[in-house]
Amino acid sequence: MIEYALNFGFVCVALALLMNLYRLTVGPTTADRVLAVDTMAINAIALLVLYGIGKSTAMYFEGALLFAMFGFVSTVAYCKFVLRGDIIE
Amino acid sequence: MPFVVELIISLLIVIGGAFLLIGSFGMIKLKELLPRLHAPTKASTVGLGGVLIASMLFFWVERGHFTIHELLITLFIFLTAPITANLIAKAYMLLNVDPHKDLPPSKQDEGWATFDPIGPEGYDPSEEYKEKET
């Protein structure tokens, strides 16, 4: 039964990523694109965790953790660049 | 694996996936950025939380020993989601909102913090505002 639930989850995450990709390409403002990338990082974490359950290996957990950290750092860095014109002052 | 545990894990995965989809659907459904900031909070709390709790339960039953390292991701996302939302809103306001037309007056010597850059030593942004008024 977990396989069916996993397939459902994969389809949901794939559709969610496509919707985020639409927002990333259409825009219209810079902040919209940053928000789209941030949401894509969250969806990528969910995809990695689901794939880890499907393969029943904990190896993908580290990848998910890295995605969580770098997604946050990249979002903050880009927002900081827009706000101040510089990242590390 | 017992049937009840399998049912709970499947239910958590389905709920998480549905909320991830709803959160991202809000990204294309809502019209402006500030309402749109509301949508991914669903994905990052219930969506990701459901999937991670399902993973935690699955490896607990599969391996036989309980680990909470999935909670690290949940904790990290819960801590950082407000910060990113705040910074994105500030970046949007700086680029797309006119502080003189769209915002109420701050009723202080300075303007709103997002629009008043910190200058070099001895620079007082409030002087610019006083000059504009006269």
UniProtKB/TrEMBL annotation, chain A:
Name the UniProt record assigns to this protein: K+/H+ antiporter subunit F
Location of this chain's protein in the cell: Cell membrane
Record keywords: Antiport, Cell membrane, Ion transport, Membrane, Transmembrane, Transmembrane helix, Transport
Keyword check for Metal-binding: no
Membrane topology classification: Multi-pass membrane protein
Family: Belongs to the CPA3 antiporters (TC 2.A.63) subunit F family.
InterPro entries: MrpF/PhaF-like
GO molecular function (one): sodium:proton antiporter activity
GO cellular component, one term: plasma membrane
Domain of life: Bacteria
Membrane-spanning residues: 6-22, 34-53, 59-83
Entry-linked PANTHER family: NA(+)/H(+) ANTIPORTER SUBUNIT F1, NA(+)_H(+) ANTIPORTER SUBUNIT F
From TrEMBL, chain B:
Keywords for the protein's UniProt record, in alphabetical order: Membrane, Transmembrane, Transmembrane helix
Residue spans crossing the bilayer: 7-28, 43-61, 73-95
Gene Ontology molecular function terms on file: sodium:proton antiporter activity
Region (Disordered): 106-134
Keyword Transmembrane listed: yes
Top-rank lineage group of the source organism: Bacteria
NCBIfam families cross-referenced by the UniProt entry: CPA3_mnhG_phaG (TIGR01300), PRK12674.1-5 (NF009316)
Name this polypeptide is given: Na+/H+ antiporter subunit G
Organism: Thalassospira povalilytica
